[in-house]
Amino acid sequence: MKSKNRLTALLVVGVMLSSGAVSQLREQGMSMGIGVGATLGVTDVTSNSSQFMTRGFLRYPLSKALLGEIGFGVSRMGGDDYLTEVIPIDYRFVVSPFAFEAWNPYVYAGGGAIHYDVKQPPANPTATSLKGWTGFIPAGIGVQVKLSDGIVLEASGGYNYTFSKNLNGILATKNDAYLSGLVGLTIYGESPNADPDRDGLTNAEEKQLGTNPRVADTDGDGLSDGDEVFKYKTNPLKADSDGDGLSDGDEVLKYHTDPNKADTDGDGLNDGDEVMKYHTDPLKADTDGDGLSDGDEVLKYHTDPLKADTDGDGLKDGDEVMKYHTDPLKADTDGGSVNDGTEVANGTNPLDPSDDVPKPKKEELKIEAGKAIVLEGVVFETGKSVITPSSETVLEQAYNTLAQNPEVGVEIRGYTDNAGKASTNVKLSQSRAESVMAWLIAKGISADRVTAKGYGPADPVAPNTTPEGKAKNRRIEFFRTK
Fold first, then answer.
1. Which of 190, 220, 235 is the last residue of a domain?
2. Fewer CB within a 10 Å sphere, N or C end of the chain?
3. Would the pTM count as exceeding 0.85?
4. To 10 degrees, the CA torsion angle through 202, 207, 212, 213?
5. Is the same domain home to 162 and 57?
6. Cβ(139)–Cβ(108) under 8 Å?
7. pLDDT-based confidence at 25, cuts 50/70/90?
């Protein structure tokens, strides 16, 4: 019983020391090791006790999780009445089915030959031979624990079945066998198929590329070497593959630009300058939507790529350059005292100062931003949205207001009295507001400056108890939105 306890304790030593990072078997290349331990015979008739054992081996990778091992050992089997010298030579397959960081278990099995020599036979030996060769099958388990780079502590234990009944000097009813336990050191080199930094590249691939197999992100750009090579096709040795001033990681993860293209949006500015210098959108060739690319604005016209109307004259930079041929940096290109936007709205030439004498303004309405005024005199046919001819005068004033003030935008609001169903009144007021809007657009007011909304009997300005009050509530309002 003591012998078995000693053998068990020997096998457990390695497991108890399992702490720290381990180089997994599947990541090891060529390795060699030596161990010492004990055997315990499994034989008939004779008693068995633990005996000394030593073994050396050479391993090499066959595949990712499979290694081949050639081993040579010197050991003894024995008990109270016999002692046999055993020299095993075997070949094993070593399999690491699991990949743990803290420890590395494995199983093994194989075959080989044993030379046995019964040095102290029992009192009445009955074996047919006390010395010779026989085949055997070893199988067992083991564990590795890393001590330093290239060196691991290894413990293993197994069962060794022989094809002979003579190892204890007595011819028995079953073949002899023995248990074995070993603790030792293994020196290894890393497999070319290993990926110690878990970046998706093997050691062999990293060597070919020149990257660091111990650092997942060799160039420190925020992308793993494997992702750079296989996913983004960037240079894992260069933090900024396209040389645009942004790291590959920032391009992929933060700005979503192309890390292989210095100017992702093709506007003439590199992505780094767009982000850090001009604060434009590297994914949008025309950040301010004025019709000029950011590159042309910065490099050719020197306009502001973040401001659609750099000189504030009411015309977009793109329209000034391509449509009116005015200077987008000068509000009054011809210097005639009227800005380009007003000249275009008035039909005068923004390149000719002689026509800049302001024409007398036509009568217009006085409206303030955020406030509404009633268009007194706009009348519709009863129950309809048809504008009556008597409304022309006030509608002309409304048109003049918008035509002479191109920066103004309005919501045309329609209202009714409370006679009839509210839903019908809302629909009628919407239709009337749209009729006014259509009248103004037909006269030349841009559709993006006016909207129409019907409010029905809401917000009355007079009591609906008299005909006069109801007439006042049936109204059209201008609400200045800008």
1. 190
2. N
3. no
4. 30
5. yes
6. yes
7. low
